[in-house]
Design brief:
about 30% strand; five-stranded parallel β-sheet; Rossmann fold; about 300 residues; 8 helices; alpha/beta
Length: about 300
């Protein structure tokens, strides 16, 4: 005879898409809620409890915390899960059960979280001076050529043309789609393989996004005095988080790679609390809009 199903016990099938009741399961895909193997000394919002941990809890006769959280019972049948829940009641918690092991559950959670929470951006995502920098601007302005110059100066590429971002545990993380990994399209050269030309050290699998640099065609006649003195700043919302944005005018003869390195290093100083004069002084109050009002195109 099967044990009665508890009202807070739900099956978890590791399918590519969410189950039929997304309201119950979607919280598992919240990237701000970390998951790990159950550890009462280091609790997480989502805890995985495998057979060894369940046996230890039974032998030590330990109860689960009273604080609301979610548990995933791995390598267990529905009937076994119902019986175990009767022996370890936690009315404020939600329990999921699956016959899969904790490794498979962890891979499923990471994959689904990325698929459900991706934010795509047009541009080149690079590691410049240790910081994740998204270089954006309208098509043909020279983003890939700039990326090539930065690569030759020792910086690293994460993704060209279509990086995607997710909310990670320590900030906004940027990745490259699998089908364009290691590749950079440069007008006049075509598609080049960065790994073959510059080596594996010129590539980065992922990086936290710290700064956005928007390239636009310089028009010095319409450049305000404030912009000439302190640069053009703003913010762009990505994954519901404001990311600092710096608009950089480009013109023939200007070494944009040096400008980008300078902007990034200045931003790193500001983040460290050592901002000096120039770019770091009188920083304009940034508002949450796609780009400053005088931007010639949407990001």
């Amino acid at each position: 005879m099967s044990a009665p199903a508890a009202p807070n016990l739900f099956p978890l099938n590791l399918e590519p898409t969410l189950p039929d009741n997304p309201a119950i399961y979607r919280s598992l895909l919240d990237t701000t809620q970390p998951f790990s193997e159950y550890n009462p000394l280091d609790p997480t919002p989502i805890a995985l409890i495998d057979p060894l941990i369940r046996a230890a809890l039974g032998a030590r006769q330990e109860s689960l915390p009273l604080t609301p959280r979610q548990y995933i019972l791995t390598e267990i049948t529905p009937d076994e899960a119902a019986v175990w829940l009767l022996q370890h009641p936690a009315p404020l918690a939600r329990f999921f059960h699956t016959p899969q092991n904790k490794t498979a559950v962890g891979i499923w959670l990471r994959t689904c979280r990325q698929a459900q929470n991706r934010t795509w951006q047009h541009g080149v995502f690079m590691e410049v001076a240790g910081s994740g920098v998204l270089i954006t601007g309208h098509s043909g302005i020279g983003k890939s050529e700039l990326a090539l110059e930065l690569l030759s100066r020792g910086h690293r590429l994460i993704a060209d043309d279509a990086p995607y971002f997710i909310q990670g545990r320590q900030g906004i993380e940027g990745y490259c789609p699998e089908n364009i990994r290691d590749l950079l399209e440069v007008r006049g050269l075509g598609i080049i393989n960065v790994r073959d030309l510059f080596g594996a050290n010129a590539l980065k699998y992922r990086k936290n996004l710290r700064l956005i640099i928007e390239l636009y065609t310089a028009d010095h006649k319409n450049l305000s005095a404030e912009s000439r003195l302190h640069g053009e700043r703003g913010q762009l919302i990505i994954c519901h988080q404001p990311i600092p944005l710096f608009r950089l005018p480009i013109a023939p003869g200007r070494n944009i790679a040096v400008f980008v390195e300078t902007v990034v290093r200045q931003h790193n100083l500001e983040r460290s609390g050592f901002a000096g004069s120039g770019l770091g002084e009188h920083e304009a109050e940034a508002s949450a809009h796609p780009s400053p009002p005088n931007s010639s195109h949407p990001l």
